[in-house]
Specification:
By secondary structure, the chain is an alpha/beta fold. Helix content is 32%, strand content 28%. Strands 5-4-1-6-10-7-11 form a seven-stranded mixed β-sheet, with helices on both faces. A two-stranded antiparallel ribbon has the order 2-3. It has a two-stranded antiparallel ribbon with strand order 8-9. The chain is globular, with a radius of gyration of 17 Å. The N and C termini lie far apart (41 Å). The relative contact order is 0.18.
Length: 218
């Protein structure tokens, strides 16, 4: 059959404001930067190209780190995650796109390839894990109710989409500010499916997350 092309968009446009004075993506775990773990999984996967939407302040360092990576292209991100992803979408040449947070270094090659396999049938999907904690709804510091967690999932990335579907969603919702691409399709009434993720697939936000990732990446 005809060959379907897969691009990955990796978000790296944040300022790491909750992390401290350094960009968390360049923080090293066992002598290897957080973002390099992320990109290595995609590099070894079946994606055809990897577009990193980078904050201007780390572009040069990323160019240096990934200069020998055939699949990688680095573009400047926007001032929000949504704008960064849209810039990535404009830079893509593909039938399907996988969007992933640069700050989730525990992503595996299998998980990426699994998304590639499944998105052909599902058209839109997100990796997610079943919520383990008991979730409370709170108003003014007081619990209003407990939410039944049987139906609850925590969204992660990767998220994978038919290219035209997600690009059109971005164009329709350009004036809004989503931090989750799957959420854009939900708002437009499109179906988004769940792929079971891993509890290890954490997002590096604080210094503590680096310590946790060190254990996972031993």
């Amino acid at each position: 059959g005809i060959y379907m092309k897969f691009s990955a968009i990796i978000t790296a446009g944040g300022t790491s404001s909750r992390f401290g004075n350094k960009n968390k993506l360049l923080e090293k775990i066992n002598d290897k930067e957080v973002i390099r773990y992320t990109i290595d999984a995609f590099q070894a996967s079946r994606v055809d190209e990897i577009i990193i939407c980078s904050h201007i302040s780390i572009m040069e360092e990323l160019r240096e780190i990934f200069k020998d990576y055939i699949k990688v292209r680095i573009t400047e991100g926007g001032e929000t995650r949504q704008k960064s992803v849209y810039k990535g979408l404009l830079a893509c040449d593909c039938d399907y796109v996988i969007i992933h947070d640069g700050a989730r270094p525990m992503v595996s090659v299998d998980m990426v390839n699994n998304c590639i396999e499944m998105v052909k049938d599902m058209r839109a999907l997100t990796v997610a894990t079943k919520t383990i904690d008991t979730i409370k709804e709170v108003e003014n510091g007081k619990i209003v109710r407990t939410i039944d967690r049987a139906k609850l999932y925590n969204t992660q990335t990767p998220q994978a989409f038919e290219y035209d579907l997600i690009r059109k969603a971005h164009e329709k919702l350009m004036e809004r500010n989503f931090t989750d691409d799957a959420g854009m399709l939900e708002v437009l009434g499109e179906k988004v499916y769940i792929l079971d993720g891993s509890y290890k697939n954490i997002k590096i936000t604080t210094q503590i997350d680096i310590e946790i990732a060190k254990i996972f990446l031993r």
